[in-house]
Specification:
Elements lengths: L8 H4 L4 H16 L5 H18 L3 H18 L2 H12 L4 H18 L2 H19 L4 H17 L4 H14 L25 H5 L3 E3 L21 E3 L20 E3 L20 E3 L20 E3 L21
Parallel strand pairs: 1-2, 2-3, 3-4, 4-5
Helix pairs in contact: 2-3, 4-5, 4-6, 5-6, 6-7, 7-8, 8-9
Length: 322
């Protein structure tokens, strides 16, 4: 590590080479910031990159490394580096890895004001997602929405054709996902099928409310959706989970990432079939006691809490948790 102070705990967690490389890259980048000459900084960065790539086992690991660095660059506001890293991650990639790299590249290019290349990246991301997941998958429609948003801003003459495609896609999987189109996406002179309501809503299997501002809203009625299997409420401004959520007896996946939750109600113990519980980027200081009662839980994520998660001693996790 060139004298960098690696935390000993890292090695007790059996890290991958990629995780170590990423950590070393961040520490070395911070250290390189003290070099006076810009040219020396650039040379040191290129040399470091080359050395880290040599540590990685295969091309997939190198692509993952560049994708992680692209995300980090995007967060820092270095859109040029993010676009370049994403392009390197996309080279030779297939399936979801290619989709992720192209989508990140398109976002960075848009932020750089390079609309032409951003449109090419959005189109390629849509094609890759459709090849990977099929035309009826919700993620394919998400990729289509991103392309439509780009077209509405940068190429309005293409929007009418894309709107027709989006309308058909929405109609085909309306029963498995709930989402609302912005007014500009509705074709003139036409009305879309209404979103499910009443008994149709109660029969939904999946409900995606990611990114909605639900702070202060009453979500207790969702507890009546007894057929629901997947509920996504990521980045929704939640400060608490309603007691009524215990009524969703068929729920298998509960995604609560990026809210401001500090506890979970004991009523959730009624979710006997819960397999996935995503709680990262919240405000948990202690492990919620109800988690011990999820006997079928396989995936539990508590990463990146916005406060110290210290009260974990004495808590027992279900044996099924990976």
């Amino acid at each position: 590590s060139g004298g960098l102070d690696l935390p000993s705990s890292m090695f007790y967690d059996y890290p991958t080479v990629l995780e170590i490389a990423t950590f070393v890259h961040k520490r070395a980048s911070e250290a390189a910031g003290g070099v006076d000459a810009e040219g020396d900084n650039a040379d040191a960065g290129a040399s470091l990159d080359s050395a880290l790539e040599g540590l990685l086992e295969d091309e997939d690991a190198r692509r993952s490394y560049h994708l992680a660095q692209a995300r980090d660059a995007l967060k820092r506001g270095d859109f040029a580096e993010a676009a370049e890293r994403a392009q390197r991650a996309a080279k030779g990639a297939e399936g979801p890895a290619l989709v992720a790299a192209l989508a990140l590249q398109a976002e960075a290019l848009e932020l750089l004001g390079n609309d032409t290349d951003a449109g090419i990246a959005h189109t390629s991301a849509l094609d890759a997602r459709q090849a990977c997941s099929g035309p009826l998958h919700p993620d394919t429609a998400v990729a289509l929405v991103r392309l439509c948003r780009w077209a509405d801003r940068a190429a309005p003459h293409e929007t009418s054709v894309l709107r027709e495609s989006l309308s058909r896609a929405r109609h085909l999987f309306l029963r498995s996902i709930v989402w609302r189109l912005p007014p500009w996406m509705v074709p003139e002179g036409r009305s879309l099928d209404p979103a499910p309501c009443g008994q149709k809503l109660l029969g939904l299997k999946q409900l995606n409310l990611d990114g909605q501002d639900l702070a202060g809203r009453c979500l207790a009625p969702l507890g009546a959706m007894g057929a629901l299997e997947v509920l996504r409420l990521r980045r929704a401004g939640l400060t608490e989970v309603p007691e009524a959520f215990g009524g969703m007896s068929q729920l298998r996946e509960l995604w609560l990432t990026g809210n401001s939750l500090a506890e979970l109600p004991e009523s959730l113990a009624a979710l006997k079939g819960l397999h996935v519980l995503a709680l990262e980027a919240n405000r948990f200081q202690a492990l919620p006691t109800v988690i011990q009662r999820f006997k079928r839980l396989i995936h539990l994520n508590l990463d990146e809490q916005r406060c110290d998660l210290t009260a974990v001693d004495g808590h027992t996790l279900p044996a099924s948790v990976l």
